[in-house]
User: Which sequence fits this backbone?
């Protein structure tokens, strides 16, 4: 069964897979922005701007971090960066 699925996926041209990937990651980004808007995150606050910018830059920019045998990159590393940056209590 897995061999048949694999064979079927290999028949899809690379350009089509590339287009699907662009659409997928664009959709993920738009859902994230929609979530920020719906939860009324104040993006006029510099702290929130910096956190959002760093998460997007790390996630899209291809940053990579190795910790022992583990390697973080892409969405995984961006998530870790977001959690760490949001651990600092908000003071205004």
Assistant:
């Amino acid at each position: 069964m897995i061999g048949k699925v694999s064979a079927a996926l290999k028949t899809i041209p690379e350009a089509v897979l590339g287009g699907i990937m662009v659409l997928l990651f664009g959709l993920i980004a738009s859902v994230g922005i929609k979530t920020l808007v719906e939860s009324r995150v104040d993006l006029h606050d510099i702290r929130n701007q910096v956190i959002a910018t760093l998460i997007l830059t790390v996630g899209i920019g291809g940053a990579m971090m190795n910790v022992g045998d583990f390697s973080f990159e892409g969405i995984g590393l961006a998530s870790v960066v977001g959690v760490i940056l949001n651990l600092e209590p908000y003071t205004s």
